[in-house]
Amino acid sequence: MTVPKLQARILIVDDDEDDFIITSDLIRSIPSSGFSINWCYSYKEALDQMKSRRNDIYFIDYRLGAKTGLDLLKEAIAAGCEEPVILLTGKGNHDVDMEAMRVGAMDYLIKGELNEEKLERSIRYALERTASVKALRANERKYRNMFERSKDMVFTADIQGCFKDVNSATSDLVGYTKDELISLTIYDLFVHNKDQEIFRYLITERGEVNDWEAEIRNKHGGHRICIISASLEKDNNNIGYMQCIVHDITNLKKAEKVTLQIEKLAATGRLVRTLAHEVRNPLNNINLSVEHLRDETSANENSSTYLEIIQRNSSRIGALITELLNSSRPAEMKMEPHVLQSIMDESVLDAIDRLTLQGIKLEIKYPDEPVIVTVDKEKLKLAFSNILVNATEAIHHKHGRISVVISSNDDHSIIISDNGCGISEENISRLFEPYFTSKRNGMGLGLASTLNIIQSNKGSIDVKSEVNVGTSFIITFKKNAELLTVKAHDASHSNQAAGSAD
Question: What is the rounded CA–CA span in Å between residue 483 and residue 481?
Answer without folding.
Answer: 6
